[in-house]
Amino acid sequence: MERLSNLSYKNQRILIIFLFSLVPVVLLLTFSYLPVFKMFQYSFTSWDGFSKNMEYVGFDNYKTIFTKPEYFAVFKVSLYYFFATFVQMGLALYFATILSFNVRLKNWFKGILFFPTLLNGVAIGFIFLFFFKPEGTLNTMLDLVGLGAWQQKWLLNPHLINISLAFASVWRYMGMNFIIFLGAISSIGSDIYEASEIDGANRWHQFRHIIIPSIKKILQLNLILAVSGAIGVFEIPYVMTGGSNGSGTFVIQTVDVAFKYSKLGLASAMAVVLLGIVVIVTILQRVLIKEEK
Amino acid sequence: MHTFKYTAASFFKYLTLVLGALAALIPILVVFFASLKTNAEYASTGPLTLPENWLNFSNYTKAFVDGNMLLGFMNTIIIVLISIAGATLTGSMMAYILARFKFKGSKLLMGAFLLATLIPGVTTQVATFQIINSLDLFNTRWAPILMYLGTDIIAVYIFMQFLDSISESLDESAMLDGASYWTIYWRIILPLLSPAIVTVIIVKGVNIYNDFYTPFLYMPKSSLQVVSTALFKFKGPYGSQWEVICAAIMIAIIPTLIAFISLQKYIYNGFAQGSVK
């Protein structure tokens, strides 16, 4: 590196810009943009992933997805997780708000509420498998508080399974939203609260007129992430149910179609459809949010 | 009247906090209880019953040995260390040139990284798999390492944010002494970035430790198992020995708990910064 200092700063600049961006750009192209390109290409073939020649079949894969209900059903499952995100964000916002004011044992509550987010996804799957077992934690607790009649087979009943799984998902990600909101709320200067108190504002007024407007951007960002999050659900249902009983999500199905049944073309077409949905929703939200302003 | 209203609100506040804390803790606590029970004890008691012997670690030994957890931890550590070291270097280099130099294409570069994050990783897995395969990286540790390294705009963002607070006059005075840009980056910028590096290490470390999808898909070979995939293997064969599975769950959780307790302050900041900006 001694020789570098012999170059003029102008040449050094060119060299360092090139060298420093080389590895990240190569990685970016190989693992982000090339896969998207390949995905589009595969989606028009009937490729199995192994054979040497790819046969182009036009829009056949897309026809299959939109005409066979079993391929589209997974999106209904996503809706459970999508709605669960709102529950999750509501809880996170509530706890972040009360914990940003004076509370006893504040740090303990903060730590306990946040901790689940740090846990291993597979471990969480097992924890909730244990929680929802017929003789598991939830049913035992219901019995204990006199609600024995409410006991259910949480993971065997097709009407309940996705709600149970979405609950596990809320448990897992609530802490993440909570800590983000808490960080945003605590960056609001205390003088604003003091001024509002002189004007006679109560906690609700403060929440409505100070807190919500200052964290609006983060709320919106989280809403956008909620869509891709709901579609990208994999670990919890895969570990807990393997996607059985109508709990299969989009990612579970894609993995099955691609790697279990070796229909790479079809799986790619599914991924293209998914990407399309995410792009449309993102654009829609951008437009709606802009109009609001 | 006012005090009554205040007390009621305060009561409600603490009630919800306690309920929230219980909801967060109970699912983990019962697993901990079960992990300390003997097989007969597990079968005859409910999940909320405390274990008879708090020092019965036989399930832990069994889970650790049968699940070959040591191997899982070894592989995880190797992957975490290399990925994080790489991501810190490439991320800070990228941030350095983007924050300090105005050049043609810097906006394009930034935009390319940003756009990439909008593409959900899960959608492109099928095609990514083929790329990994054609690079002959399937069933090697390099597959997840390269994927964790690539396209990390979050790290770049955190570094850029922090670089803004490092005065450019430092760079300039170093240049008066004849330091090269490399020396400035390596001797001045990188050491000053250390708080941001801690943030990136924590956020990335937690993500990699907890990831299941990537190692499951790209390294199915059992000698390459990581903590997640080692744990997943308990599903099925141990269906009748939940007390062993529970011990395995605890083995996977304990490192996280230790890290959380010892790094609490940094972890909160790290996650708030890492996910917002």
TrEMBL record, chain A:
Domain ABC transmembrane type-1: 74-285
Membrane-crossing residue ranges in chain numbering: 12-34, 79-101, 113-132, 160-185, 218-240, 264-284
SUPFAM superfamilies in alphabetical order: MetI-like
Keywords, ordered alphabetically: Cell membrane, Membrane, Transmembrane, Transmembrane helix, Transport
Topology of the protein relative to the lipid bilayer: Multi-pass membrane protein
Family to which the UniProt record says this protein belongs: Belongs to the binding-protein-dependent transport system permease family.
Protein name: Sugar ABC transporter permease
The organism of origin for this protein: Paenibacillus tianjinensis
UniProtKB/TrEMBL annotation, chain B:
Transmembrane segments: 12-34, 77-99, 111-133, 145-163, 184-209, 242-263
Family: Belongs to the binding-protein-dependent transport system permease family.
PANTHER family from the UniProt entry: ABC TRANSPORTER PERMEASE PROTEIN MG189-RELATED-RELATED, LACTOSE TRANSPORT SYSTEM PERMEASE PROTEIN LACG
Membrane topology (UniProt): Multi-pass membrane protein
Keyword Cell membrane in record: yes
Pfam families: BPD_transp_1
Span of domain ABC transmembrane type-1: 73-263
SUPFAM superfamilies: MetI-like
Name used for this protein in its record: Carbohydrate ABC transporter permease
